[in-house]
Amino acid sequence: MVILTRILGYSTKLPRKYKRQGLIDSLRIHVMGGNGGSGLPTYGGIGGAGGNIYVTAKEGLTLRHVKNKIKDMKIKGGDGSNSTKNGLIGMAGTDVNIDIPPGITVYDENRIKLGEIDSENAKLMVAKGGEGGCERSGYCGLKGERRTIVLDLQLLADVGLIGFPNAGKSTFLRTISHAKPKIANYPFTTIKPQIGIIKYKDYRQISVADLPGLIEGAHMNKGMGHKFLKHIERTKLLLFIVDIQGCQISLKYEHRSCLETVLLLNKEIELYKRDMLDKPAMIIVNKMDTEGANKIYNEIKLKLNNLSEFLSEFDKSIQPKKVLQFDGIFATSLISTNTTEITEIKNRIRYIIDKYEEKRSFTQNTDSYEDRLYAKLRRQEQQHAPTLI
Ligand SMILES: Nc1nc2c(ncn2[C@@H]2O[C@H](COP(=O)(O)OP(=O)(O)OP(=O)(O)O)[C@@H](O)[C@H]2O)c(=O)[nH]1
Ligand SMILES: [Mg+2]
């Protein structure tokens, strides 16, 4: 069999499962609005407008569904029909709609944001059909708008887990939800994001995204960093998980102590997008069952509570400019599944998220009319022609 496959030129080695089945979190589609029909100069007839292209959010879809559905990744709107003696006003071309999953940011080829599609049925025009020919255009129908759009999926979870590889992020997700992420004693066990749901007794649910571990230089696209940092951009709470013993990813990297890993994670996020540090943050110092853990924790406890005060003790290269202030600090052993501690952590998560939502809705409601108008104008400036419907 092996010989036969070699003779036929096939590789006997199948791609790894995740490569075949992996999550698609970005997709490019070429969209073309339909062309306008031509007008009829003799009778002043107007050609039909070309059809527009829209994207609409539909729950339950993935970008893989979208990819499988669109041939050659090209979509064209219907052309408007020409004006004739029997029909002076040409028929408009048909609009085309692409159903996409919610949680997508749509960009054009120059990375200009066209809009965010977050909730079910949110709709965005991504290519406008050309105008039908009329007197103004010399009765020639105009070409439809053409562009390549990028659909960029950002997971819509409430909480994003951040940590170096092997810190125990997936162990945490398993402990607090029914998700079954892979857990193993080597770095980069998690290679694609996974979401778990914390269910509270009163049926409240909070979603948590487990992401691949970050490494130093993630903001420069080292490791899988950049690709996955975008998934925590829209979370409401950053939950850091660090190993009390610190971390050494490989022999290529130096060993970092627990506090150094906290500062490095802080710095990576700052370098990626500084605004993200304005979100509430919480930290779990994990693996407290390991040797000497209590002693280390007693030494760092005070500093962890007040990182900015002790910043000068660390090497300049790992000092962030904006230092995290944690809204909750827990030292625990996630494998011991101590239910009281886990319940405390879950309650704290809920408390912080509720406070965050409260604050956000308060500031939204108290924004002055001018502020809202200014924000709207700024959004429109970014969006160019397409408009969120
Ligand atoms: N001793 C000890 N080991 C733990 C604890 N929590 C997790 N581990 C172990 O640490 C290893 C890594 O755990 P994971 O949950 O896979 O870590 P991760 O942060 O998801 O790692 P990546 O997916 O590689 O980024 C596994 O062998 C876990 O069993 C803990 O509290 N104590
Ligand atoms: Mg993991």
Automatic annotation (TrEMBL):
Record localization: Nucleus, Nucleolus
PROSITE patterns named in the record: G_OBG, OBG
Span of domain OBG-type G: 157-354
Keyword Lipoprotein: no
Keyword GTP-binding: yes
Keywords carried by this UniProt record: GTP-binding, Nucleotide-binding, Nucleus, Ribosome biogenesis
Family, as annotated: Belongs to the TRAFAC class OBG-HflX-like GTPase superfamily. OBG GTPase family.
Protein name (Swiss-Prot/TrEMBL): GTP-binding protein 10
Organism of this sequence: Xylocopa violacea (Violet carpenter bee)
Lineage, uppermost ranks: Eukaryota, Metazoa, Ecdysozoa, Arthropoda, Hexapoda
